Amino acid sequence: MPKLVLLRHGQSQWNLENRFTGWVDVDISARGEAEARQGGELIAQAGLEFDRAFTSVLTRAIRTLWIALHASGQVWIPVTNDWRLNERHYGALTGLDKAETAKAHGAEQVHIWRRSYDIPPPPLDAGGPYDLAGDRRYRGVKVPATESLKTTLERVLPYWTSDIAPALQAGETVLIAAHGNSLRAIVKHLFQVSDDKIPGVEIPTGNPLLIELDERLRPASARYLDEARASALPELAPV
Fold it and tell me: Do residues 224 and 208 make contact, with C-beta atoms less than 8 angstroms apart?
């Protein structure tokens, strides 16, 4: 039975500052480092031995992975970085203070931009400080100007199918260290969560989610390793 662990990066510096981050490459905070280390210790305590790991091209996810693997004694495993596991792009909200944005546009509108499944924020203007068109990590990639969870899923799912699923189907134990929305996209796919329910699914930072999969890569069981910080999980789809 293949095993998959999903690990959301620890608190970032912009999480701490209550700013919309998206594709901006900020580091994790001291608390984020502690969360990643605790996640790795929980992985070790659970006796999980990974065959490979996947992460995004953003520092906060990469460092979370490094710290967790170091804490679990598995820094040597193969790691693949791919932009398709990046956080969703927050468009014109990028860099803005969340509370100030709610005052400017209304809390209800900001909630829609943040949590709806298919309504993206306004697009980011080209040429600004957060325009990543010239970033060499994205050479040959059409960098989005904004994304919803739906369009995030549309880039995550092909990568899941082409790279991650084959490793699991081969019986490997896989760790994915990524972001709240790219991981929510994977959860939506695996647990067959409906469009109207996925906005209510939350992935806590630094708390490994262990999912045991059947031969069709459907969840047979799922649990957070830190029960005290666990969020509610979607119901397992009927067999």
Answer: yes
Region label for 48, one of left (φ > 0), alpha (ψ between -120 and 50) or beta (otherwise) = beta
Write out 37-77 in H/E/C secondary structure. Answer: HHHHHHHHHCCCCCCEEEECCCHHHHHHHHHHHHHCCCCCC
Q: Could you state, in order of their start, the residue ranges of all structural domains in the chain?
A: 3-229
What is the pTM (predicted TM-score) of this model? 0.96
Positions marked active-site:
9, 87
Q: What architecture does CATH give domain 3-229?
A: 3-Layer(aba) Sandwich (3.40)
Q: Can you give the pLDDT of all 239 residues of the chain as single tens digits? A: 899 999 999 999 999 999 999 999 999 999 999 999 999 999 999 999 999 999 999 999 999 999 999 999 999 999 999 999 999 999 999 999 999 999 999 999 998 998 899 999 999 999 999 999 899 999 999 999 999 999 999 999 999 999 999 999 999 999 999 999 999 999 999 999 999 999 999 999 999 999 999 999 999 999 999 999 998 898 876 65
